[in-house]
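Hi all, posting the design record for the shared folder.

TITLE: backbone redesign
STEP: 1 of 1
STRUCTURE INPUT:
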């Protein structure tokens, strides 16, 4: 028995280190992700964060930790193509529309990003149940493993039986600093942050 055990060589140390390192990385990613999701869970998509600088700093620090974990990953491939649902943001324009929707006798529903990498398109959509939506169309191109350039092409405010076209208004870029099968975390040219998850729906115009 002893000879049989001695005859079996131990696993290569390099393989053990790689396996251990992978497990540690996965654990760190899981812990950082859980911390971020806990921090944003009660922030009403970012509305409450606007009045709480301490909470904002904690969330931004958590995002930066996610960025370190995702630093070497490619986040602009085909897996970026999806309907993404807003969980939290610092983007003032989106938050203003979400907050003020009640002034127009409605409320903000799902806030979505619909991205198609192969077609080079991105739609930002704020829905107003049951029939309203404000959406901005953009063209996109991939400039690096994590950076996406975008240019707004048109915008529309639509109700059940009416539609108001609006002019396009800008261009820029965003970086997907972390992405997995559940969530995506992005920073943009203005220093704003975005946390979205993969929506269980397929939104179309």
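Okay, here is what came back for every position:
SEQUENCE:
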């Amino acid at each position: 028995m002893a000879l049989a055990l001695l005859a079996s060589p131990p696993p290569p140390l390099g393989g053990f280190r790689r396996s251990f390192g992978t497990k540690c990385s996965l654990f760190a990613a899981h812990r950082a992700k859980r911390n971020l999701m806990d921090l944003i869970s009660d922030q009403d998509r970012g509305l409450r964060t606007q009045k709480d600088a301490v909470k904002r700093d904690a969330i931004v620090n958590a995002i930066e930790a996610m960025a370190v974990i995702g630093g070497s990953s490619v986040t602009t491939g085909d897996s970026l193509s999806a309907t993404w649902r807003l969980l939290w943001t610092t983007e003032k324009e989106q938050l203003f529309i979400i907050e003020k929707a009640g002034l127009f006798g409605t409320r903000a529903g799902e806030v979505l990003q619909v991205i198609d990498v192969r077609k080079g398109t991105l739609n930002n959509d704020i829905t107003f149940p049951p029939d309203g939506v404000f959406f901005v169309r953009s063209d996109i191109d991939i400039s690096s493993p994590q950076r996406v350039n975008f240019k707004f092409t048109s915008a529309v405010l639509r109700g059940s039986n009416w539609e108001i076209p609006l002019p396009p208004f800008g261009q820029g870029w965003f970086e997907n600093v972390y992405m997995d099968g559940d969530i995506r975390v992005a920073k943009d040219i203005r220093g704003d942050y975005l946390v979205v998850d993969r929506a269980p729906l397929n939104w179309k115009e």
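COMMENT: The chain has one domain: 13-198.
Let me know if anyone wants the other runs.
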